[in-house]
Every structure is written in structure tokens, then in C-alpha cells.
């Protein structure tokens, strides 16, 4: 299966599961965000561009499935995918703690940006609920679910070999 | 190399760091602009607009999939909810028990208020009825205390001389005579009940006019009509009311016509001077809650 097809399948299934199953899995006031975890996995393995595109498509699909305002989740997840990808391409490259750190930072930023966007378009959002209660529980759940989701991503998307990543310098013999 | 002219292939252009960054930023910019455009259009257009129509169509097309996933996931979700329910069951029991306790108290309060309402309505009916003494006013009051000893039959009311209550004022309910005010303070008064051994009320048989004195009987709340001559005709079921006599400057403390009770037994021995007449009052002396204190000379006391 090509990379694009594997990423498409991953994102599509994750969005579907997020909309139908995980969004109703309320644990201590929060829900796991499996689509976000898949996006972080894709972005760390494939880079910022793929991460941004996957985030945009996954978010748009989620907006369609939940009949939400089109574009809100797409914008948030596109930025999340890009940010995680850039981190994977630069500072986080080869670091074992990169996935955990990515999950923590991206989850918090996505919550903040989502709250800000929903506030901008005039939806009733409780800051305490969205940024304290749901965020803390959601962060814990994302850290728990992150392991299996990243393992699945690694199984479906072959990690780049060291030679694959270096595209700017080629040694000529 | 080795004397042979070698034609070297033209070097392939490698993507530079600048072009990679440009590509990245372009992709992100396009996506962000696209998302903002979607948000704007989706937010501003009506529900029947093209974007909403497309969204609805795609959602409809994907619905079978979501339904299928939901059905597959339902057993797992149910299992999760069941497990979560087990953990929260203890807390639920505590919460429901507390709620049950509050509701029970509420029910008791409601029933108490209902009983009080019924009692006050009955008092009001009595005040507005022709049986109420015409030259008396009234002060309505709740019973605040009942002496706990079995030796005295009395109640305490939260009304006193400040409210127009005087010593020896008759106290009634809608069912009949209750007793007499025997002690008054500015804000409270004590009423000796008809069932107290010290009480005595001159009364008459409403049907035959036979006169006598109502006193405390031998047991509990029982009343007897004493000093009824053997010649007087009294029957079981006759109604006994206060006589309200007046002789010169002397007058009974009670106005005439206040119901006291009904005759339940009439009998006499040959050796007795008077008949033995037992009376049963309609007033439940053991659970008095609201009463009227009759105030002489005031047609509308009202409290």
C-alpha cells in the first residue's frame, strides 16, 4: 500500500471512530482524541506537509460527520499536523520522547485554538469546562491511547531510513 | 579518464532548503486559507446554501458507515458504560439516599402544610358561620407548646395581651370548645383545656334544653355532663352546647351556643340524684394545632 493510501485509510478510519465511538467515551469529563493522535503519528513519521494535509482532510471529514461548522476542525488539525511535523523534522528527530512531548503540546494547543475559534464564531463555550476539566482528562487519555495508536501508525507507515531523510546534501563519489 | 573521453551526465537539480520551506509554507498557507474560506462561507450562508447542501449530502453518504461502526462499537461502549456504572454505583447510592431523605422531608412538610391549611380553612368556616358568637372577635393562633405532664391539660399560644387576649377568654376550634385562657403574658397565653380536671362549663342540651355542667370524666379525654336532673329528657346523640347564662351582673365566661360534644351514654341509678351523661367532643385535644381565642367586644380581631 502506498504512503498516501495508508495515510488516507488511517485518517478516514480515525475520523469515523472519533465521530462515532471515542467522542462519546467520557472518562472523568474528557474524551480521547484518536484522530489527533493519528495525525501526530503521521506528522512525526512523514513530515509537516503530509501532517498538515492529513490534518486538514481529517478535520474536514470530522466537521462533515458531526455536521459542525465546516473548516473549524480542519483548520485546527491542519495547524496541529504541520506543527507536529515540523517538530519531527527538526528538534524532535530521533528523540525517544518526541511522541510524548508532541502529544502533550499539541493536545494543549489544539484545545486552546479550538476554544478560541469556537469563541470567535460565537458558540457558547465554557472556558473552565473546555480548558481545565476536559483538557486535563483528555490529555491523560491521549497519553494512554498514544502508545497503541503510534504503534499502528509505525506498522502501516514505514519509518524513513536515515538516507531517505537527507535530501539536501548528496555525497558524490 | 583512461584516455577515453567521458561524457558526464548533467547533474540533477536537488531540492534546496529554500524551495522545501517554500513548498511547506505554501501548502500550509493554502490549507489555512481554504479552511478560513470554508468557515466563513459555512458560517455566513443559510442552511439551504450550497456548502451546507454538500455537507449534508456527504454526511448522508457516509451515514451507513457511521451506523455500521456505531453498531459494531455499541457492545464495547455498553461494556464500558456498565463497568463505569459499577465504579460510580456507590456514589450514586449515596447521592440517591441523600436525595430520598430530602424528598421525604419535603413530603412531610407538604403534608403538614396541607393539614394546617385544612385546619385553618375549618376555623375560617367557623368564624364565617352563624354559630360564631356575634359579639365576639377572635385572635387566631397556632399551638406552640403542650405541657408534658399528664397532670395538667393545657396548651400554650404565641398570642397574649399585646394581641388583645384577656384572661378567661374562651378558646375554640371549628369543632367546638377547647378551653379557657388561664394565664396571659404580653406575648403568650396558657389555655386550660376542657379536659382538665379544673375545668367546668355550664351547658345545655340543644334538643331538649336540659341544663348541666360539663366536667372532666374518669378517663383520658372523656367528658361528662353533671347536675342533670332525672326529670330532664336527654337522648344519645343530642348535641351539648355552652349555655352562656346571665343573672344580673353575673354572666357565664362562655358565650352561648358553642358546641361541646354529643351525648354518647345516658344512665342513672335509683340512688343517684342526677343522671349520668357521657359526652364525646369532636375536638381532638391530643393534637391541637390552631385555635381561635374569642375576644370580647371586638367583632374583628383577626390574626
SSE topology sketch:
The complex is a heterodimer of chains A (173) and B (303).
Chain A: H1 3-20, H2 34-46, H3 48-65, H4 72-89, H5 98-120, H6 127-156, H7 162-165
Helix pairs in contact in A: 1-2, 1-3, 2-3, 2-4, 2-5, 2-6, 3-4, 4-5, 5-6
Chain B: H1 17-44, H2 50-128, E1 136-142, E2 154-157, E3 170-173, E4 176-184, E5 189-193, E6 200-205, E7 211-216, E8 223-229, E9 239-242, E10 246-247, E11 250-251, E12 259-267, E13 274-280, E14 290-296
Antiparallel strand pairs in B: 1-14, 2-5, 3-4, 3-14, 4-5, 6-7, 6-9, 7-8, 8-13, 9-12, 10-11, 12-13
Would you write up a description of this structure?
The complex is a heterodimer of chains A (173) and B (303). By secondary structure, chain A is mainly α. Chain A has a single domain, classed as Orthogonal Bundle (Arp2/3 complex 21 kDa subunit ARPC3), CATH 1.10.1760. Chain B has 2 domains: 80 residues; 161 residues, Thrombin, subunit H. Chain B starts with 16 loop residues before the first helix and ends in a 7-residue tail after the last strand. In chain B, strand 7 and strand 8 form a beta hairpin. With 303 residues, chain B is of the alpha+beta class. Chains A and B meet through helix 1, helix 3 and helix 4 of A and helix 1 and helix 2 of B.
| Protein structure class of chain A | mainly alpha
Spatial order of the strands forming the largest sheet of chain B: 1-14-3-4-5-2
Provide mean pLDDT of chain B, rounded: 83
| C-alpha geometry of chain A | globular
Shape of chain B: rod-shaped
Continuous helix count of chain B: 2
Largest sheet of chain B: 6 strands, antiparallel
* Total of DSSP H or I helical runs spanning 4+ residues of chain A: 7
Number of individual domains of chain A: 1
C-alpha termini separation of chain B: 128 Å
- Indicate the percent of residues in helices of chain A: over 70%
Percent of residues in beta strands of chain B:
25-35%
- By CATH reckoning, the class of the largest domain in chain B would read Mainly Beta
CATH architecture of the largest domain in chain B: Beta Barrel
Helix proportion of residues of chain B, in percent?
Answer: 25-40%
Residue stretches of chain B low in confidence (pLDDT < 50, at least 5 long) are 299-303
